[in-house]
Write a structure and sequence with these properties.
- With 335 residues, the protein is α/β, with parallel strands linked by helices.
- Helix content is 36%, strand content 13%.
- It has helices spanning 4-8, 23-30, 46-53, 68-72, 92-97, 110-125, 128-136, 160-170, 198-204, 224-229, 247-255, 293-311, 322-331; strands spanning 10-12, 35-37, 58-61, 79-82, 101-103, 152-156, 175-179, 193-195, 207-210, 235-238, 261-264, 282-284.
- β10, α11 (247-255) and β11 (261-264) form a beta-alpha-beta unit.
Length: 335
């Protein structure tokens, strides 16, 4: 059993934390919480997390690996508060076996990610990255592009982020197709929105944007087969998880102009240093779609509030749904 002090100690592995808005740190200080921020200044590896976590009862985590090995190395751990939406980096089953509660902040990053997605679409359509590169090299070349109003956008995944993308695209008058493994309650009324199957979305969309969680069902959801169904002028945007796209297949498709371009904010291995960086028709960013000041603050404050709820014996607000545990069981072949 943890001692009183060890059970209440908080390790914050997500960095930067409180750098752009110190409200989360001030809230911890106000409540006299004993916390330590990851001293590495970057996302820790599994082994580094194992070394850091040994004497802590609460983990406020970002995207760093919280594996079974990490959990086994944390005898006092009783709460994992995820600042963000993705859960693929946390071994939920190992946490459950140890009686460790897990929370997350699924709605906090949505506005920032949705805006970022639309920004990527505009950048690709109007060739903004290429024009910037040309002018920095002293080349004056006017790029001719396409308008969002004239495009059909296909959304694979229409959850909290996908719904906001639909909302933002309404202002452009864009036709939107939606596909999801589980259709949500989004209304098609006056939205230029239509539910379709995966194949129809791939064949008819000018831009495809991915908003799926990384699960057994969605790993390598986009491979050479799906890329081959897309229009040669089509664009692909991914701000969800890197493992949803086969990066080798995407490289081949972009290099051979089977599709026109892509914008990727997430990768199978991060930081990314792979061959896609060699391609001018691939816009790459460093997993920053959710990193607006307000949404980062909302994620951090949401996670801190769950820490305070836990420490004061109040109900946790956003515990991970049972479906997420069931999905990991399916992935591990337990069911």
């Amino acid at each position: 059993m943890p001692t009183r002090s060890q059970g209440k100690r908080v390790l914050i592995t997500t960095v930067p934390f409180g750098d752009y808005d110190d409200s989360p740190i001030e809230l911890l200080k106000k409540n006299k919480v004993d916390y330590t921020i990851n001293p590495l200044g970057r996302r820790p590896t599994e082994n580094e997390t194992i070394e850091l976590i040994k004497d802590f009862g609460i983990l406020l985590a970002g995207t760093s690996p919280v594996t079974r090995k990490v959990i086994d190395a944390a005898p006092y751990l009783r709460l994992i508060a995820r600042a963000g939406i993705g859960l693929d980096n946390i071994d939920l089953l190992a946490a459950k076996e140890k009686g460790i509660q897990v929370t997350y902040t699924p709605h906090a990053p949505a506005p920032a990610v949705a805006e970022f997605v639309v920004g990527c679409m505009l950048a690709l359509l109007r060739h903004i990255p290429q024009a910037n590169q040309d002018l920095h090299k002293g080349v004056w070349k006017r790029q001719v592009g396409r308008r969002l109003a004239d495009c059909t956008v296909g959304l694979m995944g229409v959850g909290s982020i996908g719904k906001l993308v639909v909302k933002y695209l309404q202002g452009f008058g864009t036709r939107v197709l939606g596909f999801d493994l589980r259709q949500s309650d989004i209304s098609a009324d006056e939205r230029n929105f239509q539910w379709v199957d995966k194949e129809k979305l791939l064949r008819e969309s000018d831009i495809i944007s991915l908003h799926l969680p990384l699960t057994q069902a969605t790993r390598y959801f986009i491979t050479c087969k799906e890329l081959g169904m897309m229009k040669p002028e089509a664009l692909l945007v991914n701000t969800s998880r890197g493992g949803i796209i086969c990066e080798e297949d995407l490289f081949e498709a972009l290099q051979s102009c089977k599709i026109a371009g892509a914008a990727l904010d997430v990768f199978e291995k991060e930081p990314y240093d792979g061959p896609l960086a060699q391609l001018d028709n691939c816009l790459l960013t460093s997993h920053m779609a959710a990193a607006s000041v307000d949404c980062k603050r909302a994620m951090e404050m949401g996670a801190v509030q769950e820490v305070l709820n836990f420490l004061t014996g109040k109900p946790l607000r956003m515990t991970v749904p049972q479906e997420a545990y069931k999905e990991q069981e399916r992935r591990n072949g337990h069911v």
